[in-house]
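Q: Mitochondrial ATP synthase subunit G protein, please. Structure only.
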Amino acid sequence: MASKLVQLQTKACKASQVVAKHANSYYKELLEENKQYIQDPPTIEKCDLLAKQLFATRLASIPGRYEAFWKELGYIKNLWKNRQELKVEDAGIAALFGLECYAWFCGGEIVGRGFTFTGYYV
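A: Structure for Mitochondrial ATP synthase subunit G protein:
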């Protein structure tokens, strides 16, 4: 057991040395690739302006999202009307999607409860 711990410590030390060696060059490369997005000088006023621009952009995208929602809803209504022609493959995909949604819901509930399976802390 002790030998495994020493091996693990050695590997962790080597990994941290590799990260320390290459992190600075990676950081510089990342900044260079994204320099067109960097605001100079980085002031509070500039951050406030960017936040307002993001909010306005999100507001402007609502009509497109609204239209896409109704288009998807129309597609689902059409599928429901023609459910006799529905293939087993499509029904299976829909069932798997529903199962995935339920799994994400359960995972969110577990996280919300503080990673307990039995109930909420009171």
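A: Brief note, in case it's useful. The chain has a mean pLDDT of 88.
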